[in-house]
Design a protein that fits this description.
extended
């Protein structure tokens, strides 16, 4: 299918989704990311189903139309310096009730954490700098770095929630001692906030606290 034709199909589907009337509203917490502050907002939800026709002139494509459920979440009022939030989600999972629709939205909200996890692997753990040449080597490295990336995200969450809490109450003694040796702080006096600042300095500005 030519690019212009694909765009017309996408636009038509978006127009249909945006024509769904609001069925319910709910508060939503938008986390801080990419220079934008965390904020609270109110979003509208609408959902329905569509039938997508198979692409023409695609030998490997199925000949059967595909039924998908479409969930649209949007923000009617946003701060002046923010672009109004809008998600248009397509799923093959049957979605026939409001409870199911909000559940699909909750699934999608995990995207933020997943993106931060991959950013942690890339920036905090510098996985791309390893220049591995085989899948087996990459899988072994991920076996080591994945728990580390999760731990870094946990520590960042602690530092955001309780920056003045003593780091020794949360951080493993060995990890605390190693970081203290690389900084001007003492393990006994380091807070979660200062601990995370030092971690961010080692991991690059893109993983700095916010």
């Amino acid at each position: 299918m030519p690019r212009s034709q694909r765009w017309m199909v996408i636009k038509h589907s978006l127009d249909r989704a945006r024509a769904f009337p609001s069925q319910q509203s709910r508060p939503l917490e938008v986390p801080a990311r990419h220079g934008h502050k965390a904020r609270s907002t109110q979003v509208q939800l609408a959902f329905g189903h569509m039938t997508l026709l198979p692409p023409r002139n695609e030998p490997q494509a199925s000949n059967e139309p595909l039924t998908v459920w479409v969930i649209r979440v949007w923000e009617e009022l946003a701060p002046e310096d923010e672009k109004p939030l809008e998600w248009v989600l397509l799923t093959s999972v049957p979605t026939t009730t409001l409870e199911q629709a909000w559940e699909r939205v909750d699934w999608y909200r995990h995207r933020w954490l997943v993106e931060e996890y991959h950013q942690c692997l890339k920036s905090g753990c510098r996985i791309e700098e390893r220049q591995l040449q085989t899948v087996d080597a990459l899988m072994r490295l991920l076996g080591v770095l994945s728990p580390l990336a999760v731990r870094l995200l946990q520590v960042r969450a602690y530092a955001r929630e309780e920056p003045q809490r003593p780091a020794s109450e949360v951080i493993e003694p060995l990890m605390l001692a190693v970081l203290a040796q690389r900084s001007a702080h003492l393990p006994a006096t380091m807070t979660l906030g200062t601990f995370w600042v030092e971690v961010a300095r080692l991991g690059g500005s893109s993983f700095a606290p916010s």
